[in-house]
Design brief:
270 residues; alpha/beta; two-stranded antiparallel ribbon; 5 helices
């Protein structure tokens, strides 16, 4: 007999009244301003209500995440947090120290933030995760011709509600500008290569392509097209490899909203 969970849609419901809240935290200089503007523009185009917070302390970041998690997201499709900072493997810098990423994510777990339970919680982090530099490696590309993918057919259950239990840590996505242990270069004029690629892909494919496929495309763009030099310390060009960890349980496609109210509020630390 077919398990009840197999009768649930394979795609997240993106037809709520609102797209959702998007929080952008900018905690460093040198390219972050451009990245903040790019992400604000991108997320508002996707229908999010964007709030930008700059120069946050450790306490302010934790309080902010708890406060946002306590908001009512029942009419929202999902939630997005963008962190533009320096950092380490599992932490990002505040103005007075470092904060673990896990502590910022924790308030949004399903048993705490119940109005986002079963909905996507997306975290995009532009920050170094160590001091290593990736100088790349030469490879020989093998070209192949791939035909059109045929989508699998799934039966939908109309007019019937299915209740099932999910893990509290389900439906999260953590997307990083680089892999653990490595630096994430920024450009003071044009912004970071990762944020530029992410915004371009989201704007172009968000309504037609699943988010994980989009992130693979971002990985491809950054890995193949980007190279730079860090502070003149090395004559060998530096490469960069973004990464992501997905606990999503369905496909995520940002279906267009018929009517969207775009909000942009810039908040300075109190």
């Amino acid at each position: 007999m077919e398990p009840d969970v197999m009768r649930v849609s394979d795609t997240y419901n993106m037809e709520h009244e609102r797209r959702g809240l998007a929080v952008i935290i900018t905690n460093t200089q040198g390219g972050v301003e451009k990245d903040g503007e790019s992400m604000t523009d991108c997320l508002t185009q996707l229908g999010f209500e964007v709030t930008v917070y700059s120069n946050q302390t450790m306490r302010q970041m934790k309080v902010l995440m708890s406060k946002v998690a306590q908001s009512d997201h029942s009419t929202c499709d999902c939630f997005v947090c963008v962190i533009l900072s320096d950092g380490g493997n599992d932490n990002v810098k505040a103005t007075d120290g470092t904060v673990t990423i896990s502590s910022l994510v924790a308030p949004f777990k399903g048993h705490i933030c119940k109005s986002l339970a079963g909905k996507p919680k997306l975290f995009f982090i532009q920050a170094s995760r160590g001091r290593e530099l990736d100088h790349g490696v030469n490879v020989t590309n093998a070209f192949s011709v791939v035909g059109d993918d045929a989508d699998d057919d799934y039966d939908e259950v109309d007019g019937e509600s299915v209740t099932y239990k999910i893990p509290a840590g389900a439906d999260f996505l953590l997307a990083y500008s680089t892999v653990a242990g490595y630096q994430s270069p920024r450009n003071t004029i044009n912004g970071s290569c990762y944020i530029n690629a992410l915004c371009w892909v989201l704007k172009k494919y968000s309504t037609t392509m699943d988010l994980l496929r989009m992130l693979i495309l971002v990985n491809k763009i950054v890995a193949r097209r980007f190279q730079s030099q860090i502070d003149g310390r090395s004559t060998i060009p530096v490469k960069q490899m973004p990464s992501f960890v997905s606990m999503l349980t369905k496909d995520l496609i940002f279906t267009p909203k018929e009517e969207v109210v775009w909000v942009r509020r810039v908040m300075e630390p109190s």
